[in-house]
Amino acid sequence: MKKIFFILILILPFIIQAQIYTPIYNFEPECESSVRIPIEQNKSYEIDDNDIGIEEPHTDEQNQIILQKYVLKSLVDTQLQAQGYDADGIIINNIISFHVNRDINISGELGIPFVRKVNEFRIVVSAELVKICEGNKKFSNVSTPYNSKGEQVGTDIVKVEFTVKGKDSIVDENDHIPPASNVSIEGAYSVNIGESSTQLANLGQESARLKLIDGSLAYGYGRNLWYIVESDIVTHILQNVDILNNHGKNHILYSDNYDAKNWIINDGISFKDTYESISKKLELKEKNDRFYIKGDRSILYFTFEDYFSYDSHTTIKKLNGFTLSSIASSQFDKRIKFAQVSDLELKNVLNLSTREVRDNFQNFIYLNEKGPWSIINQNVMFNVDAGKVNKIKVTEAVSGNQSEQEFVNILNKFNIPLSKKEFLTRYPDISDEFDALSLTNEVYTLQAYFDSYEDDAQLIEMNIEYLE
What we know:
The chain has 468 residues and is α+β, with helices and mostly antiparallel strands. It has helices at residues 2-19, 49-52, 60-82, 246-249, 275-281, 343-350, 404-413, 420-426; strands at 27-29, 37-46, 89-107, 113-130, 139-143, 159-164, 167-172, 182-183, 187-188, 191-192, 208-211, 217-221, 225-230, 233-239, 264-265, 269-270, 285-287, 290-294, 298-308, 315-326, 364-365, 373-375, 380-385, 388-395, 431-432, 436-440, 444-450, 459-466.
């Protein structure tokens, strides 16, 4: 009996601790007794080495799983923050995450320089505290924006407003039933090489549309599936081939329809099958380290990556993506052609001197939790309506390779503060949130994110949103 009593003493504090967390609601309450109280949890989480994993490179699904672990941590911190209020529950309205993975040059106490590795998630949770009516504790059938697991409710039912050719439209990724994810030598996802671009309507609203340097158009579905169109004809289909880099892809909402890597090549070949197993099913040809099979009108290239096995230091070659190309149009330039915007025009907008721009942009991200973005150049995006800028994003490059110094040169060019210290000097009223700064006035809100919490930390992203 004494042993049982001792065990209960040990367990009881943990039971009590679990009970004091303010619950996160999955549904809106039918009745609220007071005005909601807004709160924000803004914190960085260093990524555990164990989460990085042995097997590289990571797929989007693996990255999502790793991120989800830290999102859940941020929700627990939000619940702990809510304990100081007399609230019955929490409504999660928005979750924003940034991945910072870079080396920082630091001077030690004796002036000796060293490099510090920073690999962390910055997670911002916007929430409201709710007090339920005493006589009505029921919940409605209206879902909250995010559930208690930090998942956006109906992640693949995303509705945002944007303007295309002068018409307002509502995007809903599930307005249609996505086609089967079959891949063959002729085409993929029900669209074949050589067909009219009108067939892309079968895929629903594109996540992104880009104009490439050679004049062709790239239609993106999810983060990794791209259709290249030349003269209204589909000439290439790419899966997991970079047009936007990883940083750029993350501005596009994850799509269950097209990012789930559930595609199947007709011969029973799927994502992460080994080269050895595929070569037994197909007579793969090789040229310039590229493996392919050839049809009458098109070529199917297989993209392999070397993965470390869990039980040894040897690598295994596994299928990581594919490219379908028309034989008649085997080459294309995947660099993005940006609209001609003068440095003076950009500088005036970025320094908040004007909101008026010539709305002649040709590169767009449509499916994004913050609404549609026009990609102005590698580092600048605008949300524009009728020639008027509503939101501004200055960020590390979304396409191609850009060095840290090249990004610094861009910031200098447009008179944007480089470091946390420079932001604090220019905006004395800005709120210091360790590795982020935020400012709200009568005209706009500004958020700046940095690669560390130190005063000389470099800017990695700045967002400005006008309030009207």
